[in-house]
Amino acid sequence: MSELTNLTLTQVRDKLAHKEIKAAEAVAACLARIEATEPALKAILHLDAEAAMDAAKALDAAGPQAGKRLWGVPVLVKDAICVKDAPTTCGSRILENFTPFYDASCIEKLKEAGAVILGKANMDEFAMGSSTENSAYKVTANPWDVTKVPGGSSGGSAAAVAAGQCYAALGTDTGGSIRQPAAFCGTVGIKPTYGRVSRYGLVAYGSSLDQIGPLARTADDAAAILTVIAGHDPKDSTSAPREVPDFEAALTGATDLAGLTIGLPDEYWGEGVDDEVRQACAAAVDTAKGLGATVVPVSLPHTPYAVATYYIVAMAEASSNLARFDGVRYGYRAPEAQTLDELYELSRSKGFGPEVQRRIVIGTYVLSAGYYDAYYRKAAQVRRLIRQDFLTAFEKCDVICGPTSPFAAFPIGQMTDDPLQMYLSDIFTISLNLAGLPGLSMPVGLGQASGMPIGMQLFGPAFDEAAILRTAKVLGTALPPLPQPTGM
């Protein structure tokens, strides 16, 4: 990376605020980094260099403004989030020519804070996947080793941040789609509490699960982005009317973990976890103890049912949400269709990829008459039990800790023919989405066998993102820093 793209978000922001560099210089540095790395990385679906440079020059002409927290900072946005006058494809052919005429609420807030939008990051089609191999346009590589996946579905956002193409990126997390790619790429990713960040302008996958959140290089950087995009939005009926603390300020002066109780769930540290993942996470827990934290055992007994529950709920909601893309109201329309039935059939079968079609079929099945009670209703009941597990555990601890993924990044193509195995890679992330609680993944080292980044999760009580950010900041400062990715 160049000297400029090697900086963290908060470091480059300070230089911008003190006029040590111009916004146009920060944007030019990112564009140069993108030009050098994108042929191998394939992390970006749409890059609008001219618009980004024009925005940066306009900021420079007006000068730094103290009230704008992200003044001049270049960022990327997952392609499921609407940005005015920029294509929003969701990684799907069915939305190939869709260009929104409005900004999502979180994009409005980023722009108001002075951030410069560089473009849109690659993703699994409609956020369905754990490897960014399901995009209809390209397969994103991991910047640590381009033969391996970056995780998914926000793999483009995570890879771009790790490779220095931008200082932060927005992702979405339906079943771990921010935290798992953050772990695979060695970045910090946070899924806020459901309702903390407005979903207005986000193309829905699973409406009761989706959350927008940041991917960044440090906890401070993630806190800076989250402080800007969080808050109640009357345009989103699920947005929580809760006061938003200054997450950045909450991290100021945090140097130890004295008084913090960390819960370790038995279900996250047992069978199925690779040795290198267990060792790296256990070493991080030992570091937390050395910083003053108390560790206690907790139990999340319904964890074994989380994968089945998640895929019933998520696919049911996906089948409903994606019904609007029918060739009539939205998206690709098959030109050869002769009848209305052919129009629906051909448009959807050609516009959607195989993974999306698989999930729509399963979702439609579990919602169908005769099977609703057996599947969807039962899943909704188990979902309540999973949430209660977390609430009970938080009576004994302040945060819960465990591996983000059972393994490090795997080779591209290894699981594409085995979707059930791919679904199981989310086993440690999806419970939190079902419970609607906040979670953060942070890098805790490189795997001894794979040499790839290992991520550890921190779970917090509802609307207490400050607790997990503060823990991640202190722990991240104490752990040895990761080297720069060398895979490109």
Structural summary, described in words:
The chain has helices spanning 9-17, 23-41, 49-62, 105-112, 155-163, 179-185, 219-229, 247-251, 275-290, 306-321, 340-351, 354-367, 373-393, 419-424, 430-435, 465-478, and strands spanning 44-47, 74-78, 116-121, 168-172, 188-191, 212-216, 261-265, 294-298, 399-403, 439-446, 453-459. α9 (275-290) links the parallel β7 and β8. The protein is built from 16 helices and 11 strands. The N and C termini lie close together (11 Å). The protein has 488 residues and is of the alpha/beta class. 56% of the residues are buried. An 11-stranded mixed beta sheet has the order 1-3-2-4-6-5-10-11-9-7-8, with helices on both faces.
Q: What labels describe this entry?
A:
488 residues, alpha/beta, 16 helices, 11 strands
